[in-house]
Predict the structure.
Amino acid sequence: MPEDKKVDKLRRKFLVSTFSLPIFSLILSKKDANHKRSFGDDFPYKARHFKNFEKIRVFSDNLIRNHLKIYQDSVASLNTLIKEINSFANSGKFSLQYYELKRRFSYDFNSVKLHEIYFESVTKDNVYLKEDWEIFKRIKRDFGSFENWKSNFTDLGMIRGVGWVALCYDKLSDKLFNIWIDENFSGILTGCKILLVMDVFEHSYQIDYGIRKKDYISTFIKVIDWRIVEKRLSE
Ligand SMILES: [Fe+2]
């Protein structure tokens, strides 16, 4: 090898060994920093206000107040959980307690999110589903008729247990589904957008309806804000 090429090779080797380690370390430290800041800057969560739900006339003030309190407690619980999880992440010491907190995370996170979708889904205004709306056309296509959809949605609500009934949209298959979500997580369809949810935990109806769950479901369906459902479908 000519002498000048030997010098070039040695120079390249020197540059690689001198600068690659710090760059690699920088990437690692950035990754580590991101790991420590595992939940972004938006936390702690703040409980939102839902004027439309507060003013809904079909539920008593007592039920509305209690339900909003349960949601606010979920937000507080989620924030506590995140704080605990972050303290483990920052210490770098993981334990069974950490894994249990992580398992709990989806329960509280989904409780907050599902309640928010639920509170947004109702209105005191009389909103009727119009035949030329996209959501109506898709319900008709996938369930045969609006009555079929309503009947299926009601039947799912009567499942024994606590959880949610949701109308979901899968973009990939371009299909709507009514689903049952057990408690706050089991049954959620991966990749599907939730267009509408109905809370069927006892706290959502028993103050007003006792064990008459079907009456609650019928009332809920009457106050759905289909404008919101249509908007969610288009987003
Ligand atoms: Fe609830």
Remarks:
- The longest strand covers residues 163-170.
